[in-house]
Amino acid sequence: MSQNIEMIKTFLNLQDKDIQDVQITNNNGVIVNVILKSKATYCDVCGSTHILSNGYYSRVVKTTNDLFDNTTIRLKVKRFKCMDCHHSFSDSKVLAPRNSTVTYQTIIKIMELLKSHTMTFKEVAQLCNLSVTSVVRIFDKHCHINRSTLPEALCIDEVYTKNSDFKSKFSCILYDFEKQTIIDVLPSRRKNYLHHYFQSIKKDELDNVKYVCIDMYDTYRSISKCYFKKAIICADSFHVVKHINDDLNKTRIRVMNSYTTDSLEYYLLKNFNFLLLDRSVELENKAKFNKRLNRYINYSQILDLILSINNDLRYGYYIKERYFAFNNMSYNDDLDKQLDDIISNLILFNIPEFQEFTTLLSNWRQEILNSFSIYKGRRINNSIAESVNSRISSIIFNSKGIRNHERRRKRIMYAINKNGFLLK
């Protein structure tokens, strides 16, 4: 029994000087009866030392640990009364916050578990033998996250958030390009809300931003020009590359559907589409026997067959490869000429699926050229957003949407930035 008592003391982070008596019973769960020694020497309201004993009161707190599956702690705490201001008080915040049945240790465990973006409130509640409502209430109370100061290199992106109480399908996310952290999560990406948000930030802080990286959403560009007057606005290269790949794939599908399903052209476009879209494939691989073609052939030769099927497909592939080469160039004076040549080729080829992309390159020409800017040894881009957005989507999907925006904002920032927990 003495060994169990010592384990309980260690578990509760109490010393002999804090405890008057400990008794342990095991009846449908572990019950620990603890009588605490009083440390009160003055009134916590007026500071008077003229205090008298006013009996005991009991409180029940629940906790979780690796040794006991379901532990209930019954605290017997001495009460006092101040003879000057007549205030009654006790040493009630030894193991748990005032008016709470959850110990500090359990609160810490809950907040540590919620640092994982895959963990849901329900799963944490099950691990800690609490209700989901209790876990949510503890998170709301102890997670305090304010907006960080705007960095010199700011990335702006969005993530789909269903079941929002803000009547907006997308939340706008602000990222720190250098530190790879989230600055803030906004409930909407609508222009009127973004105006309202950035108007509340001091001009000196806005002027400190040197680069703003955005996807090709025109609202972001107009907002950036309005508030970040000293910043260079950059279009995220990832979104441009994704757009051109999508357009080439649409061209492939159109051409493929113009042939019967039993044709050789349909077979090639259906089964070897990755040769058009995936640049990581080693084209000069060892030739393998293909039953349909009845000969040994490698990927490079198959690609040649595919590109010979249709001119739109061949020209689209040429544009894609030309843009990838342009995108991988270092910053130099020839970039604008290279981009203008690509736009001219797009106009000349006049591929239906690439019409929108042609307009996009023309309208975002300067921002695309700005995206070659280097900040602290790295090219400006939204790679941080693309890597973090998958984790944000996981949080929203696993929780089946968090309607309360402030809770969703804190849940996202706490799981990604791993800070903001205050035990008070």
Please explain how this structure is put together.
- The structure is a single chain.
- The chain has 424 residues and is α+β, with helices and mostly antiparallel strands.
- It has helices spanning 2-12, 104-113, 121-127, 132-142, 191-199, 203-207, 218-227, 237-257, 264-271, 274-277, 299-307, 311-327, 335-349, 355-363, 365-370, 383-398, 405-417, and strands at 19-26, 30-36, 51-63, 71-82, 88-90, 153-160, 170-176, 181-186, 211-214, 232-235, 288-290, 295-297, 374-375, 378-379.
- Strands 1, 2, 3, 4 and 5 form a five-stranded mixed sheet that branches.
- Helix 13 runs antiparallel to helix 14 (355-363).
- The radius of gyration is 32 Å and the shape is elongated.
- The protein starts with a helix and ends in a 7-residue tail after the last helix.
Number of helices: 17
Could you give a short account of the major beta sheet? 5 strands, mixed
Q: In terms of per-residue confidence, which ranges show pLDDT below 50 for 5 or more consecutive residues? A: none
* Class per helix and strand makeup: alpha+beta
| Average pLDDT | 86
Shape verdict: elongated
Distance from first to last alpha carbon: 34 Å
The count of DSSP E runs of length 2 or more, i.e. the number of strands, is: 14
Helix content: 40-55%
| Cα-based radius of gyration, to the nearest Å | 32 Å
Beta-strand residue percentage: 15-25%
From the structure above, extract its key features:
424 residues; five-stranded mixed beta sheet; 17 helices; 14 strands; elongated
